[in-house]
């Protein structure tokens, strides 16, 4: 059963403790609250949520850039959270990150060829000539001019820099690439190029993606399965097509209903659900269901009992006492 | 806000305490050095050495020695110099402090007014000739060493032109504010200007850079879109935000100057301030005095820092909560 | 360098005109320069800008100031930095009111409280005395909107008003802007890179590329039958929530820098349909729905169908 599971997160919690002079005692901020899911080999698992929902923190906990407060993360059935730094190293190589800001994530003083070669040099994967050959191969793979390896990051456009970031992440032949908002800083035309490139690379190299973004359209486009996060929790998890066709959680439903779409006058007008208010501060979580303060369907029950993430129909998980579209989903 | 101030003052006291321990350890616990010999001075007799040993408890454990030391410094205030036998340290500092305070306060007023005005005028006239002119004057004022500038001023006002234009300039020295305010100001006028020149130059340049940054901020664009006048945008929005860094700079400069960093100016103009006192003590290796002035200097630096932080809270609302 | 080159645009009363384009397309610069918000000494604007029939380009700063803030309000992209951090929000709104109207401090403050209430800020009486950092991003944008509306402007210029905001907050702000536009009868110029936002709000669309207008037309017409290959790419490149396509249509290359706009059609180097004629700069042509492309209408229909096939094919 777990043969096809590459990465499994079980009850992952990440808390930060904050202290401000205004507050007497330390406040605990639950950035990731009890998150469980699995990423299957070869798929793209999308995580979508608004800013502050904990999606980036979760990604960092998964690749062990940050130690989760509790919970377990397994990679190829190996528990990562208990490994020493040293023992973790081979697994780290197999999980690479691609960051949001292609301007900030590349060292401006180094030549791009060296930036791409660095992980290989640090890990001593081979002779210098082998590494150089590999850099050229990677540049070709991501569609960059191999003659440009001697240049510096500032000589490249945003899209090209993101390609450099992707080339670097692929240098150690990872099996999992965690992409944290990889295209949100790019112009739309360039964003499409990078998304297409990522799709090509996945096909050619058999990569598994964990794709994190706030843009519903982008996540829909790339993902096989999607998890929706709100205030550190997964509120809904399903196959992308099902989730987008008939969202079960009121939050997902509202998100989808307000995502701007192109209206050329031929579609039937949508019903927009504009939820009011702001996301509550993570150190001030509402009791019961985290979304209840903004949910149009919340009842007293929601304030008392936090709904667990349950599998409503095979493969469709939702954390809501009153799931929406339930009849359509099961029909 | 009151809680914020209180917290800041408590932490200042803690810092002072740590500094006193540090100073104490440097003077009394440096391995291989006999503190008694240091305190007693170069040509001390065995009787004096024994007296020093007893007085400072040098044969007793460190914490007790620290206690005795602080007792001499702050409670009995009878720490005395052995180089100039009988001179008590604390009264010396008490006598020197008003001189330094007068010098630094007056200079601070001048450099703040000149520096802020220079920075604002330069920033408001970017691209015109007056901006580089002010910046040049600023760098010139920074580059000229205070002791040289002081000597030149002395040369001109006291000898070369003393018989003509500067006949009203009194001889160097200090007259207490309480005895004659007019003479006080007259005696300090050129020391003020000399000391202020350097800082006015620095402040003008720093403020101009801050203002130019601020003028590129989004909130300035918003202010323009609101239809406010350029003058109001510069003074009420850009300057108000830039003052935050000027205030922190000022606190540090002011504290260290009060603490004795105005030494060169004091020496050149013959002002018997804390800097002068330290300078003489260092020349004579007069350890008790050095220790006293170091503690005094540290006190003002820490105090100035605390005041800056409180001022920060007033100037920048974000600090109050965070 | 021509950041903006040959843009002609008119905004009718109560009309919402969307200006869409990628970074460097000159969409913000064009508006800022018209309003005299660009302070660089080496910026020059030529042409004519008329507001209610009156030429405003070249107005003295003093006269321009009266227009800005009173007749023309502005909303900016990043609400986190758009407010002066050291003043209370109510003070900042009152400051604008008092710059244009002869009212007392108390009256201006009262108006600020009303405005904050109107833009949907709960407890405006209390919030009026808070500092910007005590507001969330969405709430700050509401404050900026309240400020822009404070003198009942006839024209509102919104520069990427929702780009820095989350989806749910974006929806709140767009809804609010729509509501306020009805209430205040103002015209809006909406600058954005997001065709989706344009589709939600605008009556008319101007597509800009390299500082030049590539296409101008009714919102639905531009979305349904885009005429310029750049617009095709722009529409095809955006992943949508309603349909899944396996590949996105892309525009090769990167947006051209305003420093070296090619002679001829600015889009030609990235255009797969370019031909000899494109060495010459195209003019905006058309009847109501204008575009700057040398292709004939038949060619456009034919080629666009081709792009769609590539975009939606397996």
Walk me through what this model shows:
The complex is a heterotrimer of chains A (331), B (322) and C (314). In chain A, helix 3 (112-122) packs across helix 4, helix 3 packs parallel to helix 5 and helix 5 runs parallel beside helix 6. Chain A contains eleven helices and twelve strands. Chain A starts with a strand and ends with a helix. Chain A is of the alpha/beta class and 331 residues long. In chain A, the strands form two sheets. An eight-stranded mixed sheet of chain A has the order 6-7-8-3-9-10-12-11, sandwiched between helices. Chain B has helices at 2-28, 35-40, 46-55, 62-75, 89-124, 130-143, 146-160, 181-215, 218-225, 230-261, 263-268, 274-284, 287-315, 317-321. In chain B, helix 1 packs antiparallel against helix 13 (287-315), helix 7 (146-160) packs across helix 8 and helix 10 (230-261) runs parallel beside helix 12. The longest helix of chain B has 36 residues, at 89-124. The radius of gyration of chain B is 24 Å and the shape is globular. Chain B starts with a helix and ends with a helix. The model of chain B has no long low-confidence stretch (mean pLDDT 85). Chain C is an alpha/beta fold and 314 residues long. Chain C is built from eleven helices and nine strands. Chain C has helices at 27-34, 61-67, 89-100, 105-118, 124-127, 137-149, 167-184, 195-201, 219-224, 229-236, 297-312, and strands at residues 16-20, 50-51, 54-55, 72-75, 155-159, 187-192, 204-209, 212-218, 290-291. Chain C has a seven-stranded mixed sheet with strand order 4-5-6-1-7-8-9, sandwiched between helices. In chain C, strands 2-3 form a two-stranded antiparallel sheet. The model of chain C has no long low-confidence stretch (mean pLDDT 86). Chains in contact: A-B, A-C, B-C.
């Amino acid at each position: 059963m777990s043969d096809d599971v590459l990465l499994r997160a079980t009850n992952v919690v990440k808390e930060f403790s904050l202290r401000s002079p205004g507050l007497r005692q330390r406040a605990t901020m639950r950035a990731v609250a009890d998150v469980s899911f699995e990423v299957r080999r070869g798929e793209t698992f999308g995580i979508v949520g608004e800013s502050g929902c904990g999606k980036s923190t979760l990604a960092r906990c998964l690749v062990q850039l940050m130690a989760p407060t509790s919970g377990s993360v397994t990679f190829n059935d190996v528990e990562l959270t208990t490994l020493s730094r040293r023992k973790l190293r081979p697994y780290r190589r197999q999980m690479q990150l691609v960051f949001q800001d292609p301007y900030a994530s590349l060292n401006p003083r180094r030549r791009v060829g060296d930036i791409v070669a660095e992980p290989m040099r640090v890990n001593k994967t081979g002779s210098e000539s082998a590494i150089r050959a590999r850099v050229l191969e990677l540049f070709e793979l991501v569609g960059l001019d191999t003659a440009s390896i001697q240049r510096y990051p500032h000589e490249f456009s945003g899209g090209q820099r993101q390609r450099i970031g992707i080339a670097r992440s692929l240098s150690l032949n990872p099996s999992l690439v965690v992409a944290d908002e990889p295209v949100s800083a790019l112009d739309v035309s360039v964003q499409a190029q990078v998304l297409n490139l990522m799709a090509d690379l996945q096909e050619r190299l058999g990569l598994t993606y964990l794709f994190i973004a706030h843009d519903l359209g982008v996540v829909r486009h790339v993902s096989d399965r999607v998890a929706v996060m709100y205030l550190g929790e997964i509120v809904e998890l399903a196959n992308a097509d099902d989730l987008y066709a008939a969202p079960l959680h009121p939050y997902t439903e509202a998100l989808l209903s307000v995502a701007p779409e192109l209206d050329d006058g031929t579609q039937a007008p949508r019903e927009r659900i504009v939820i009011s208010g702001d996301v509550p501060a993570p150190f001030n979580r509402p009791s019961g269901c985290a979304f209840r303060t903004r949910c149009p369907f919340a009842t007293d029950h929601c304030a008392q009992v936090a709904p667990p993430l349950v599998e409503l129909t095979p493969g469709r998980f939702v954390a809501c006492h009153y799931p929406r579209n339930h009849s359509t989903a099961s029909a | 806000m009151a809680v914020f101030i209180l917290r800041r003052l408590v932490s200042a006291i803690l810092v002072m305490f740590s500094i006193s321990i540090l100073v104490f350890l440097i003077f009394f616990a440096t391995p291989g050095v006999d503190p008694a010999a240091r305190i007693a001075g170069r040509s001390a007799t065995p009787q004096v050495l024994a007296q020093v040993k007893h007085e400072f408890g040098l044969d007793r454990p460190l914490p007790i020695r620290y206690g005795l030391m602080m007792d001499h410094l702050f409670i009995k205030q009878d720490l005395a110099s052995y180089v100039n036998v009988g001179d008590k340290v604390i009264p010396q500092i008490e006598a020197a402090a008003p001189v330094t305070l007068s010098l630094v306060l007056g200079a601070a007023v001048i450099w703040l007014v000149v520096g802020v005005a220079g920075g604002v005028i330069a920033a408001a006239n970017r691209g015109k000739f007056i901006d580089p002119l002010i910046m040049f004057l600023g760098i010139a004022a920074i580059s000229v060493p205070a002791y040289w500038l002081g000597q030149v001023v002395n040369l001109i006002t006291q000898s070369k032109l003393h018989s003509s234009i500067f006949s009203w300039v009194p001889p160097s020295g200090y007259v207490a504010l309480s005895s004659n305010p007019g003479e006080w100001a007259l005696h300090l006028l050129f020391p003020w200007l000399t000391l202020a020149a350097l800082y006015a130059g620095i402040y003008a340049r720093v403020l101009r850079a801050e203002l130019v940054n601020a003028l590129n901020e989004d909130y300035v664009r918003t202010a323009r879109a609101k239809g406010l006048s350029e003058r109001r945008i510069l003074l009420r929005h850009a300057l108000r935000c830039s003052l935050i860094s000027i205030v922190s700079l000022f606190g540090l400069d002011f504290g260290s100057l009060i603490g004795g960093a105005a030494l060169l100016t004091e020496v050149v103009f013959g002002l018997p301030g804390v800097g002068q006192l330290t300078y003489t003590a260092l020349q004579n290796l007069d350890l008790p005095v050095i220790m006293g002035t170091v503690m005094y200097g540290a006190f003002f630096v820490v105090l100035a820092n605390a005041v800056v932080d409180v001022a920060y809270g007033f100037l920048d609302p974000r600090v109050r909560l965070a | 360098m021509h950041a903006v080159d040959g843009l002609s645009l008119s905004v009718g009363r109560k009309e919402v005109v969307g200006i869409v384009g990628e970074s460097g397309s000159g969409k913000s610069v064009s508006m800022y320069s018209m309003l005299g918000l660009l302070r660089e000494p080496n910026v020059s604007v030529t042409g004519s800008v008329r507001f209610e029939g009156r030429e405003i380009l070249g107005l003295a700063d003093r006269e321009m100031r009266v227009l800005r803030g009173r007749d023309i309000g502005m909303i900016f992209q990043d609400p986190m930095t758009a407010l002066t951090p050291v003043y209370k929000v109510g003070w900042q709104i009152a400051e604008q009111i008092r710059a244009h109207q002869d009212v007392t401090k108390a009256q201006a403050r009262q108006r600020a409280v009303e405005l904050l209430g109107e833009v949907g800020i709960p407890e405006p009486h209390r919030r009026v005395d808070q500092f910007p950092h005590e507001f969330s991003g969405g709430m700050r944008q509401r404050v900026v909107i309240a400020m822009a509306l404070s003198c009942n402007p006839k024209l509102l210029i919104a520069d990427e008003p929702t780009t820095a905001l989350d989806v749910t907050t974006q929806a709140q702000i767009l809804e609010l802007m729509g509501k306020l536009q009805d209430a205040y009868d103002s015209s809006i110029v909406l600058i954005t890179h997001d065709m989706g936002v344009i589709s939600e709000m605008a009556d008319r669309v101007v597509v800009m590329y390299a500082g030049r207008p590539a296409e101008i037309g009714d919102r639905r017409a531009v979305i349904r039958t885009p005429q310029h290959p750049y617009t095709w790419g722009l529409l095809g490149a955006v992943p949508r929530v309603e349909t899944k396509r396996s590949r996105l249509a892309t525009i090769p290359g990167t947006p051209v820098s305003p420093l070296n706009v090619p002679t001829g059609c600015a889009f030609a180097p990235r255009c797969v349909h370019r031909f000899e004629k494109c060495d010459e700069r195209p003019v905006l042509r058309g009847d109501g729905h204008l575009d700057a492309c040398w292709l004939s209408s038949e060619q456009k229909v034919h080629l666009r169908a081709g792009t769609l096939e590539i975009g939606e094919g397996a």
